[in-house]
Amino acid sequence: MSDAGGDGNNGDSVPYYLMPVAAVLGTYAVIASFRALYQAYQNFKYNPQTATAKQRLNAPKPIKSSQFAFLIISIVISIVGYGYVCALVNNSITSSTVFDPYDILAVDPSSDSAAIKSAYRALSKIHHPDKGGDTKIFQKINLAYKALSDEVARSNFEKYGHPDGPQTQTLSFALPDWLLHPEGKVAAVLVLLYLAMFVGIAIYAIRYVQAADNKASKAAMDTSVSAADPAYLASHLSPTSTHLDVLYLIATTPESISITSKNIAKAEELRKEKLKLLKKRNPKKQESNEFDFDDGGEWADDNEEDEAAKVAAEAAKKAEEEKRLAAAQLANATGKSNEPANIKMEGIDDGVLGQKWVEDSLKPLKMWPPPNMNVLEKQTFLDTADGKVKSALDHPAVRRNLCMTMGRLNSNMLNSHPDLGEFFFI
């Protein structure tokens, strides 16, 4: 007997080039499936209502998104493609194998049924799996005997070359032997392909971990300034520190500076937007070409009526403006308006008092610059806006914090200042 139906000489028709494609599709389907399951698990566990700030920062991508839909579609396509390629290769291997039942049973084509049956029993005893034989060879022996002993199987063999009839192409999702035990050039290609995929997966995993670490580090930096405050205070306070030293240091802690710097940056953006808006709303007024006529008599009466109407119109306009200003101030105070046009700013809008007014009001009392700033004299602070290191009063955020501190210490004087009776303070 030959190799019991081993590979014939028609192996050139087998599409070996598709074997790496099946390996790629199968590997992607497995990895992508795990990724989809992990994303679904993250969404199942994540609760935005009870999530912490760190959890919200690392919130998973929602399942109802184009990204997740694309992932699921790609998994389905890769699985179907894998099954189709495996079926194509398997059927090509099967069709390329010469099935010769006489050769498998080692009998002459002219042998009678008794000789065929005797050969079949002899080979079955040798190759039966229970006797330690090879399962595949045993199956081929059974097929060979079936092709020569069964009328239907013999008819199929004579018509289609196989006792089971025409071999149709069906999807195959099982892991084929040629992927588990590749040989020859296919083995070399698959080994290189597997190595490349493992290297790619390793690189992806490393980058993913690095990105997660960077994200966590950024989040830690955003939330760790408060942790630096105790260290800052402990390094500058001493048993001889005065109450002013304590207040100055609290005003210059890393967290205080960080918060104020962000607020100043937002205020500056609003200032630029408002100036741009005002420039659009208030173009240069064109000169009027109207002429005044005075023909006496009834013209004088008309002029008097016009003057009275003008005064009434101006009074109504002023009342409307005051009403609008009061509404805008109320909206700003309650946080219900953040439009640049509705926010009053010192230096742009009339009747608005701010940091400059506080500093100017504190100067006659000799409370500005802040007195007894010995604890801050040798300190410098990094201005994140321009990256420069500055002294306390040159740093915008530190200066504002100190101004607010001194304003609170002298609140009785500021609250009774006559300017507050006619101006709006921010």
Structure description:
The chain has helices at residues 19-45, 53-57, 66-96, 101-105, 113-127, 135-149, 151-160, 177-180, 184-223, 225-236, 243-251, 254-281, 298-333, 355-362, 374-377, 396-409, 411-415; strands at 352-353, 381-383, 388-390, 424-425. With 426 residues, it is an all-alpha fold. It has a two-stranded parallel sheet. It has a two-stranded antiparallel sheet with strand order 2-3. A hairpin with a 4-residue loop joins strand 2 (381-383) and strand 3 (388-390). Helix 14 packs across helix 16 (396-409). It is elongated. Residues 2-11 and 285-302 have low confidence and may be disordered.
Short summary:
This protein is an all-alpha fold. The chain has helices spanning 19-45, 53-57, 66-96, 101-105, 113-127, 135-149, 151-160, 177-180, 184-223, 225-236, 243-251, 254-281, 298-333, 355-362, 374-377, 396-409, 411-415, and strands at residues 352-353, 381-383, 388-390, 424-425.
- Number of distinct helices: 17
Largest sheet: 2 strands, parallel
Flag low-confidence runs.
2-11, 285-302
Classify the beta-strand content into a percent band: under 5%
List the helices and strands in order: HHHHHHHHHHHHHEHHEEHHE
The tally of beta strands, per DSSP, is 4
Strand order of the largest sheet: 1-4
Helix share, percent:
55-70%
Shape: elongated
Mean pLDDT: 76
Structural class call reads mainly alpha
| Radius of gyration based on Cα positions | 44 Å
Beginning-to-end CA distance, first to last residue: 102 Å
